[in-house]
Every structure is written in structure tokens, then in C-alpha cells.
Amino acid sequence: MASGSVAEASPLAGRRILLGITGSIAAYKAAVLCRLLKTAGAEVRVVMTPLAKQFITPLTMATLSKNPILVEFFNPENGAWNSHVSLGEWADCYLIAPATANTLAKMATGIADNLLLTTYLSARCPVVVAPAMDLDMYAHAATQQNLRTLAERGVRIVEPAEGELASGLTGKGRMAEPDAITAFVGELLTEKKKTLCGKRLIVTAGATIESIDPVRFISNHSSGKMGYAIAGELAARGAAVTLVSGRTALATPPGVERVDVLSADEMYDAAVRAFDEADGAVMCAAVADYTPAEVSATKIKKGDGELFIRLRRTRDIAAELGARKGGRLLVGFALETHDEEAHAESKLERKKFDFIVLNSLRDAGAGFRGDTNKVTFIDRAGHEELPLLSKREVAARIADRIERFFRQ
Ligand code: C5P
Predict the structure, then answer these.
(1) Atom of ligand 1 nearest to the CA of 333
(2) Model confidence, pTM
(3) How many angstroms does the Cα of residue 235 sit away from the middle of ligand 1?
(4) Which of 61, 117, 164, 374 is the most exposed place for a label (fewest CB within 10 A)?
């Protein structure tokens, strides 16, 4: 049967999704979301906050999910206890959609005054939230801080979309569409094969910061997104990952040990120390090549004339690991603006990389800050040019190559 085969092919087939619904007008979309999850083959149980019942009826959700809806801690008619612990244990994923500002705030602070929240605190499965609220509530510093806190604790966020809101205003805050949420959960639950189990890998990521005085510094545009995606992908495949990170605004990927550094010198020390125990390293950080020769202890006052800052070379981390590597893996990055391939090839030799990921600032969609990248892999056997891909997809291709290296 055609629909049966669709459900079997879906990453959601046979998976248990606990759908949490909170009191937002977007709760009406939870009906469609529930249908899509069921059509994809998932088992769905629904827990609602008391206010959510005002937006969509338990009867609708019970009919669609084919399970009774849970709202209270116990059934007032017969006293049967709705165990939040066993709900959390049952689920492969706890999806809270829509998630209001109120529920996100309570999740971030650990308030547990309804069944949906107690279940969150006791759930051991991955938790996904799809925020839905007015644009100003979404943009409010409190909401943004709560989302960051949750992301740091590993909660996955399906970003709201821009568009017309129930308030009549237009902006960011509208819950992501049910098909996008379903795809997000499906991807999250796609089991990665633990092909890198037993391997210990270092990833350097982000920009370094070189102090000029207590106030100013020299840095660069690196966001860290590429390195964080790589660290997350390697960890998802079972590697023990140490992420040596310059300053970024990103959440640590699940299962990754993160060491925060600021300057190139600090990154050098952290990476060299960690490399002793490692099977390899991916050098994705944008490390300053020069740092102020003297750091002023006090803020440099402005004068009338020009100001000269003398710079000294920093130590090259990749070259140092290259000198120590022996048979271990070393992957480098090269961001070039001209003569890309020639520069990358000479770097491959100088730093003893096993392969280089080259991105050129000349390619649209490649480089800093964005979520996409266009790269070419360069090794001693030749070049492989990839199309424009998401950074997550590029990370997966890099991890594929790393797997091949360890299989040799
Ligand atoms: O020579 P270049 O800086 O272009 O080389 C880039 C590669 O070397 C990247 O993989 C980068 O992370 C690494 N690198 C490093 N330490 C430095 C400079 C660059 O690890 N001080």
C-alpha cells in the first residue's frame, strides 16, 4: 500500500512523539501537526496546558492522536495518576508546539506548575520547542535570554517564521508551519550510525580575539557556525569531541565538551594540550595571524596624530599539530580571496593536513556568518568541488571523509 510504504520510509515511522500544546492561538495548527506526525507513522500522545484547552479542544486532539489527552496531574473522576515520569520515558521526542513565552520562561527557570512542565523537567528524550507569540514578546530580551538558556541545555528550537500575526502586526513570532516542524523532528530522530565511536577529536572554531588594551581588540568575522556544525556532527557519529572555541553566540552542540578561549595564544595552548590524547583535529577556527606586541594595561587615549600598533606573529596551531601528528588525522580550512587552489595546496603540505576544506569569498553563499557554504575538498589525490550546501550538510560531508580516513 502506497501510504504504508511512505510511513515505513519516514524517519518518524514507529517513533513516539509526545506533543505538548500551550495556550497560543497557534494551537489550532497543532491539529495539522498531529495529523502529519501520524501520517508519517509516529505514535502521538498529547499533553496540554489548562489554557491550551481554550484554543483547541481535547476532543479534537484525542480524535487525531487516537489517544486520550492529558492536562491534569490526575483524573478528577477516578483519581488515576498521570505520571509525568512515565510520559517522559515513553517519548522518543517531546515536541512542544506551540510554545508560548510563558511556557518557555517556566522551562528556563524550572517552574513545574502543570503536567506539561513537570513532564519537561523529567524527560530524558530530546526536547523540541516551536515558539509562537507576538513579535514584541518574541524579541523581548527576557524571551531571547530564555531561548538561549534552553538552547544551551540542549533544547532544540524550531525558529518561528516572519509574517502576519494574530495580533494584526507583522513580524517574527509566527509558529513554524506544521510540515517544517515535522521535518525538523524527523531529522532529529534520524539515527546517526556511531561510526566514530572510540575516536577522540578536537575541533577549533570561531574567531580569536587579540587585545589591544582593556577595551579594544582585533578579531575577524568568523561566526563559528561551520566549526560548531562539524563538532555536532562528529559527536552525533559517536566521537568524543573537544571543541576549542573562540567567542561565539552559539549553543554547544549536544554531547560536545567545549573549552572557551579568547586569544590565539590561549587557543594554541588548549589545542596542543588536548591533541596529546586525540586521534585527530579539525582546524576550523579563524585564528589571528598577528597580535599586538604589547597590550596596554590602560585604555589608550586618543591623540591628534596617527596611532601605530606594532603586531607580532602568533603561533600557528595547525602547523604545530602537523609537526606532532604522526599518523593521526589533521583537517584544515582555507578561506582565500584569490589563487584559491594554489594557496590551499601549499597549505596542505606546509601544515601536513590530510585534507583541506577550501572556501572562497568569491562564491556567493560561502564564508562568514551565513548558514550555507560552498567548499572544495583538496587532498593529495585531487579536488572535489561540492555544490552550495547548508553548513550542516557540509559538516556531514567532512565527517564522511573523516570516517574514510579512519577506515584506511
Ligand atoms: O595559513 P592560514 O591561516 O590560511 O591557514 C588556515 C588553517 O590553519 C585553518 O585550518 C586554521 O584553523 C589554521 N590556523 C591555525 N593557527 C593559526 C592560523 C591558522 O590553526 N595561527
Answers:
(1) 10
(2) 0.63
(3) 23
(4) 164
